[in-house]
Amino acid sequence: MEEIGRQYPKDDRFDPSGFLKQARLHQSRFRAEILNLPSVDYGNYLTREDAEAGMNFYDSFGIFDAVRERFPNYNMPLYANMLRSEHIPFNLFVPLNSNKNYCKNVFNDFFNNRINSIDRIEIEHAPKPRKNYLNDSTSFDTYIEYTTSDNQKGIIGIEVKYTERGYGLKKGSTQENAIKDKNSKYYSVSKQCNLYRPEAIDKLTSDKYRQVWRNQLLGESILIADGDKFTYFTSLTIFPQGNSHFVETSKDYIDMLTSNDLKFIPITYEEFFNTCEKHCPDNQYWEWLGYLIGRYIVVSDNEK
What we know:
Blueprint (H helix, E strand, L loop, with lengths): L18 H16 L4 E2 L1 E5 L1 H5 L10 H8 L5 H4 L8 H10 L2 H9 L6 E11 L14 E9 L4 E8 L13 H7 L4 H9 L7 H4 L5 H16 L6 E8 L4 H12 L8 E5 H10 L4 H14 L8
Parallel strand pairs: 5-6, 6-7
Antiparallel strand pairs: 1-2, 3-4, 4-5
């Protein structure tokens, strides 16, 4: 068995719940004990050789082919870092793209059976030209188009998180400038979609809520710009139940909405995997689910 590898020292400022430390150790163990691979420096990093061989991804459904098509050049956070969330949408949604009826059944458990068919799934998607929408670099980790039973079209914009929390603004960035400019698309779309309570805007610009807000606004901007094509938009965030930041952020965010008729849905990995199991069509997908559960569900030593 390979060594677990060096772990970062705990810093309560960035990991107050201890989930980040637990998840890093979990990924290090998965690499060493399940994949039987060495690490580079810290235990949650694959060697470049193993990363370029696709070892950060489930080995089926053409997942790594989809990665290389979308990101052909080596990218360490995506290819080698087992802890960061960049790779996870590929492991979750490329297999569902291979069986859109299965995907429909899974999502209908969260969408009150609104979906009649899944029409399109894309990883890392932003509408173009961006000036017609939010006019920034906001994108969806996964983008889904669907059709309802009465032939209406809808969009699901998915953000996938693992250990991440909120983040700050880079000085001079497009985002910072848009936050400061009350005439920017952020504010005009917020007003047009009529989704937020009046007192919410000042909170939404903060580090804690800004990314959830921007993901919502990107979808709402599509409804505004392409309203002749799409009727519905839902922003969906998937995160582990141990990530207390997104548990709290999601509850707070919903309280800032004037209503929530499938506008924002927070789903834990545990809920999502359970639903995938409920509708699982065959052994190939059972094996995939076994990988996902073993790979991403963090179980502390006390729970084993």
